[in-house]
Design a protein that fits this description.
There is one protein chain. The protein is an alpha+beta fold. The protein has one domain (about 1-115). About 30% of the residues lie in helices and about 25% in strands. The protein has a five-stranded antiparallel sheet. The two termini are about 20 Å apart.
Length: about 120
């Protein structure tokens, strides 16, 4: 997990308008928030849990994405506002909500990733 967090640091250098469409750049404080969440979650999840991919999201946010083959989970960390998640199962069913990245969420992710 630590390698993926560090790999995502590269987005900080992209600056404003990184996509040619006026999107804002990424803040170091938000990257650090994502990192703290993932490090805490890594301790809560069972060994062998999949490592997420961290990517650029809309409006300077970070997307954290897990794919297991039977479920996809996307967590979006916006610059402002609540952290949201969306889950899509292989059967097409979905679930959405918000979460507090500063609290323990391992049970939620264990459940999601086992679907």
């Amino acid at each position: 997990m630590a390698e993926e967090i560090e790999r995502a640091r590269r987005f900080l250098a992209w600056g404003d308008n990184w996509d040619g469409e006026g999107s804002p750049g990424f803040s170091e404080s938000l990257w650090e928030r994502v990192g703290r969440f993932l490090k805490r979650l890594d301790k809560e999840l069972a060994p062998g849990a999949p490592t997420p991919k961290i990517g650029p999201g809309p409006d300077g946010s970070f997307d954290v994405d897990w794919s297991t083959g039977s479920v996809d989970v996307l967590v979006n960390f916006p610059k402002d506002g609540p952290v949201t998640y969306a889950m899509r199962r292989i059967d097409g069913s979905t679930s959405r909500g918000t979460l507090d990245p500063e609290r323990e969420n391992g049970g939620l992710f264990e459940w999601m990733l086992s679907q």
